[in-house]
Amino acid sequence: MKDQAEALRKKLLQKDQKSMIAKTLAVVSGKGGVGKSNFSLNFAITLSKKGHKVLLFDMDVGMGNIDILLGNSSQYSIVDFFDEQESLKNIVTEGPNGLHYIAGGTGLSRLFKVEERLMNKFTEELSALFEYYEYVIFDMGAGVTEESLHFILSVDEIILVTTPEPTSVTDAYSMLKHIHMLNKQVPFLIVVNRALSEEDGVQTFNRLKIVAKRFLDREVEPLGMIPDDRAIPLAVKKQVPFVLDGKSAASKAIIQIVEQYEQQNFTELQPARTFHFVSKLKQFLFER
């Protein structure tokens, strides 16, 4: 385990000749139980498998969902950083297909209680870490909290996960509205999970699209849908990401979503993207 961690740290110290411009994404949901973390993990693994350098940051306070879904117990988590035991780059863990992730814990809520020196250290190390990756994906907790909102408002894109259930769609719209009132520019990409059919998925997206346009004058983009596939709960039970079984309908749907995401390039490349994210985050944190 120590040898693996040491090898990973060496990788993070080596920068490619061409400089990385990390795109930041927040994966959110209006309520729990819609499969948000499972989507985040399998989406990130698939991006990584296609040759991209991806960091998945588990931001679900106290839950540690990514470790659970992977059947793993990470040597370090974000808690170790805020206890000043380890640097950010040292708490990165390697997952399937070359995915890198930072395990969650109770650390995020503590970000608002630490002294300015440690907060500066967090944003500085985060900025340095981003130089290694193409994509940094924040798997946020369900709903909106003061802690999570600062990260959500700082990212380049937001992926909103919902299911076809009316309560899920209503909660997704409430989430969209809350964020829209604070940031009208950030793109919203919609994923419909547990769709009973293609028609079910399209209708669910259209319900969100119509109310967003009518009441917020806001456009949302369809990223894709994932069928209600028995392979998903079986994979969760086995603690193995379902996308590693390339034969299931759900894994094929994730691959299709990633391919569409790569092709559409919802936000243009910006040389100052990482600085933009970190500077916005610092502004929110220091205004607390």
UniProtKB/TrEMBL annotation:
InterPro entries: FlhG (IPR033875), MinD_FleN (IPR025501), P-loop_NTPase (IPR027417), ParA/MinD_ATPase (IPR050625), YlxH/NBP35 (IPR033756). SUPFAM superfamilies: P-loop containing nucleoside triphosphate hydrolases. CDD domains: FlhG-like. One of its GO terms (molecular function) is ATP hydrolysis activity. Pfam families: ParA. This is MinD/ParA family protein. Keywords: ATP-binding, Nucleotide-binding. GO terms for cellular component: cytoplasmic side of plasma membrane; cytosol. GO terms for biological process: negative regulation of cell division. It comes from the Bacteria.
